[in-house]
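Please fill in the sequence for the structure shown.

STRUCTURE ENCODING:
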């Protein structure tokens, strides 16, 4: 697209080629066509320039990694299906400066799934942005993601990595080893300019959603049957969120929410400090087998995190809200609150506290009980989830 057009024949031929490709042209202000060709039978490689638009009439076999690099955009129309086939080798990663636009609808969600319908059969979606993280307490502003090995973090709080609407991620979470695993959707330093609405992580092998710092905000997230935590945050994440629904299923799982400031620096800044309004968490039952559900807690708040969580319904957990470490306990009742919480059924221990030295602490002030609707309909499927999500 940067070379001069010498004659009408060349213009005509080029125009025809662009109209039949998977990429857009640069007419009317659109992004220029990409040099990348999206092969539905062998969807993998690096998108280094322009915009690639997939074809919703085709199923894309994700045979390896897709990396959307700085300056490039991957756009996925409503109804598109992408099937991972290669375990840890197949994933979609968006680098700093790259963008992904998932343009699903309630009637036609975008589905990222696996050819084999079982947890951990492909990697998942990884997004890396330029928003702040706290891994080194301000000494450095960036780090390298534990999957896809991309740089993330920085000083651009409103960084924009694209728009994700009506997306269902299934059977992801493939493991490299015991210390390194994909989640359904991993946010690494993603900024508040990124739109994330109506997304489900279903039956993955690790966490459903995990936030590694950043400032991204979310609305209408569903995490069902993921084999570790349904939601997880660390490294100073501070997003604003509305309507989260999480449920353990398929005979294996961990916590509803696992929340840290940072594992190796409980007071590192910026301190994790999200807000969540309207939350439902459904557990495996208070007497579920420890071998399958080792950490049977609806909400675990530890390692110095702050959070304000409001309008909460929890059901079928051994413990409702568990607070750990001195730095976290210091925020109880001020910067750490779970307000208007309803323990619907089978939650024998509502709150539990433990200091850094292992001794117990009263953290009853972390909660205020009242009637609540949670994500919108108690433990049942919310109305906003109808038509595009599964597993209720």
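FILLED IN BY: designer on duty
SEQUENCE:
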């Amino acid at each position: 697209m940067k070379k001069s057009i010498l004659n009408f024949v060349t213009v005509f031929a080029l125009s025809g080629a662009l109209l039949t490709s998977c990429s857009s042209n640069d007419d009317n202000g659109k992004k220029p066509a990409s040099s990348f060709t999206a092969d539905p039978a062998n969807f993998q490689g690096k998108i280094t320039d322009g915009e690639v638009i997939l074809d919703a009439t085709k199923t894309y076999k994700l045979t390896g990694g897709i990396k959307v690099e700085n300056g490039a955009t991957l756009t996925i129309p409503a109804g598109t299906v992408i099937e991972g086939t290669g375990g840890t080798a197949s994933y979609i990663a968006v680098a700093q400066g790259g963008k992904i636009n998932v343009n699903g609808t309630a009637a036609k969600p975008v589905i990222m799934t696996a050819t084999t319908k079982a947890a951990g059969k492909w990697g998942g979606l990884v997004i890396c942005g330029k928003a702040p993280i706290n891994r080194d307490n301000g000494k450095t502003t960036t780090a390298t993601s534990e999957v896809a090995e991309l740089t993330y973090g920085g000083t651009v709080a409103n960084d924009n990595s694209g728009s994700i609407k009506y997306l269902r991620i299934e059977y992801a979470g493939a493991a490299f080893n015991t210390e390194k695993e994909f989640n359904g959707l991993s946010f690494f330093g993603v900024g508040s300019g990124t739109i994330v609405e109506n997304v489900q992580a279903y039956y993955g092998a690790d966490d459903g959603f995990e936030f590694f710092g950043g400032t991204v905000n979310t609305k209408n997230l569903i995490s069902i049957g993921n084999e570790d935590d349904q939601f997880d945050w660390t490294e100073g994440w501070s997003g604003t969120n509305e309507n989260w629904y999480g449920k353990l299923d398929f005979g294996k799982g961990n916590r509803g929410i696992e929340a840290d400031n940072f594992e190796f620096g409980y007071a590192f800044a910026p301190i994790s400090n999200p807000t969540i309004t309207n939350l439902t968490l459904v557990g495996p039952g208070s007497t579920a087998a420890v071998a399958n559900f080792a950490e049977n807690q609806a909400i675990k708040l530890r390692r110095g995190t702050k959070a304000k969580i409001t309008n909460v319904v929890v059901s079928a957990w051994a413990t409702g809200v568990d607070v750990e470490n001195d730095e976290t306990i210091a925020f109880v009742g001020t910067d750490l609150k779970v307000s208007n919480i309803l323990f619907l059924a089978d939650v024998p221990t509502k709150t539990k506290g433990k200091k850094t030295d292992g001794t117990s602490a009263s953290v009853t002030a972390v909660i205020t009980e009242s009637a609540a609707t949670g994500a919108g309909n108690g433990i049942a499927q919310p109305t906003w989830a109808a038509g595009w999500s599964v597993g209720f």
